[in-house]
Structures are given as C-alpha cells and as structure tokens.
Design brief:
Blueprint: E1 8-9, E2 13-17, E3 24-28, E4 37-40, E5 44-47, H1 48-51, H2 56-61, E6 63-66, E7 69-72, E8 83-84, E9 90-93, E10 97-100, E11 111-112, E12 125-126, E13 137-138, H3 146-151, H4 158-189
Parallel strand pairs: 8-11
Antiparallel strand pairs: 1-4, 2-3, 4-10, 5-7, 6-7, 9-10, 12-13
The chain binds zinc ion.
C-alpha cells in the first residue's frame, strides 16, 4: 500500500484474511491487556443521505460516529478489518477508539459488537459468530436491548450512550407519573376526614 491508511492499528495486531474464507479480521500477535488501545478508526465523515449511496464495501467498513454521521476509511488499512461478535473482546473508547474489554491471547481475533456504535439500519445482517450469546441477526436497534446495555456499559460510542441515557430518563419519568397517578387514585378512595 503506497498511502498511509486513515486508521491506526496497534503493532501487537495484524489484519489478515480469516482462516475459513469469509473476509478479513484483526488478530493478536502479542498478548493484549484489558484496557489497552487496539485501534483508532479514521477516514472521511459522511452524512446519512450521501453515505447510503456509497459502494457497499465503503458502507460495510465504516463506523457510525454520531446520530447521522458515518466515518468511512480512506484509504482502507488493516485496522478497518474489525469484525462484529456477539461476545466481543473489545469495545469502544469514545467515537473512534477500540480498547480490549478483557485480556486477549496471541492468535485471538479481536472483535467488537456493532450495537456499541450503530443506531441506524445501514449494515444489518444474519450473524454467524457462533457464540452462545449470538442473537442471530444484527441490526440498528440492538443498542436498545437491556442485556447489551448492561454488558457493554462504558463501551458504547458517546452518541449511543446519550440515547441510552435519554431512554432511561424517559422510563423513570413514566414510572414516576404512574406512581403519582396510583397514589392519587388511592387517596381519592379514602374517606374524607372530619375535623371538629
Ligand atoms: Zn452473533
């Protein structure tokens, strides 16, 4: 490759074709400790309306970085070959950083869960990650799943975290409203006290 890729990949990893065919992946060449920075994504930022008209390859290698903004690698590098897993060993740190969620051994493929970055339906697919936690399909609404919000706490992209926080605040407000309605109903069933 003549031009430097827009993404950074730690020298402890390499991008290479997967052993059984389907595309590329990134693999640990050295042990990686929990919390270590693995990759930093880079590229050109596209708004949704322009992004959806890009070639499929660009769309599949990109990462969603804001509500309607997508980072597309230019030029593509090894760091852009990070795949999805429903039982990932890496998560996001900010919008474009990838860090190890646990210790990673030599030879392991490093993956994150696309639910950590995606809120739009641009890259939905049937998942064949083979993990016991595999949810079968990966889509733009997966970030709303309570079990994923719990499992990936601290590893969501900031724009996804904002939506999770807003959703939780809305739920709390609804529950408060329900409680006060119930309390009012209960109060109205009590006999009116008579003071003499
Ligand atoms: Zn899966």
């Amino acid at each position: 490759m003549s031009k430097q890729p827009s993404s950074y990949l730690s020298s402890k990893l390499e991008g290479r074709p997967k052993a059984h065919g389907s595309g590329n992946g990134i693999y640990a060449l050295q042990p990686i400790q929990k919390g270590e920075l693995v990759a930093v994504f880079g590229g050109v930022v596209y708004e949704w309306d322009a992004f959806i008209h890009l070639p499929e390859r660009d769309r599949s290698l990109c990462i969603q970085v804001e509500d309607r903004l997508f980072l597309v690698p230019r030029p593509i590098g090894e760091g852009d070959y990070v795949n999805h897993s429903c039982n990932p060993n890496a998560g996001l740190s900010g919008q474009i950083g990838l860090v190890a969620m646990r210790d990673i051994k030599i030879g392991e493929e490093v993956c994150f869960d696309y639910a950590m970055s995606d809120t739009m339906p641009y890259d939905e697919f049937d998942c064949g990650c083979g993990q016991t936690t595999c949810r079968g399909t990966v889509g733009g609404n997966d970030w709303q799943r309570p079990e994923l919000q719990k499992r990936y706490a601290g590893f969501f992209s900031p724009h996804v975290q904002r939506r999770i926080d807003a959703q939780k605040a809305e739920k709390r407000a609804f529950e408060r409203a329900m409680r006060s309605t119930k309390a009012q109903k209960f109060a109205s069933t009590l006999p009116t006290p008579v003071y003499e």
